[in-house]
Here is the input.
Amino acid sequence: MRPIRLKFALFVSLVVVFSVAIYGICVWQEFVFLKPTIQQKYRALWISGHSMEPNFHNNDVIILKNINKNYKIKRWDVVSVTHTGFYWDKNLTMPEDFLKRVVGLPGEELMFNDGKIFARMSPGFFRKVSGNFNRLGCTKFFRIRLDKNQYFVLGDNRQFSLDSRYFGPIYDFQINGVEVFRTSNESLSNIIFNAIN
Here is the structure.
């Protein structure tokens, strides 16, 4: 009777191992075929620097949805901006892409006063605009009018952010992604970054 139980246990073990191996191969194959599709829609970006604190921190990883010209960017979206087309100081090094928050939309006139942002679309009154996010520092008084294809972007850490206050408005073609997910977990960051990129 014991040899039958032993044979049965061995048979069950082999079936389990074989099933797990087949499942693993199927998942791996699925991922290999889906990865190009995922890469067409999303990409991961390591955050380097402190210009988006306290909401995004150095070494956080974010998932960006790749966008095209038909995507409607909204105020307060966190976007990835390519520095293509900017005039940079030769002594200043900038990453290929950097993260900023959209505060001004095409065609608006913006006024910054004592850390508050006011906007108007056409002649008339300015209205205060506020977002549901934390920010550090303030913005001195100034006004700017945006063209129909321009956006005004700021870092959440206003005191330490190189943004539209310094290099001016950005154009729609310079925005190449919108943030959809963020993690500070180092292990998860590595998994996500390697899986998507």
About this structure: DSSP finds three helices and eleven strands in the chain. The longest helix spans residues 2-41.
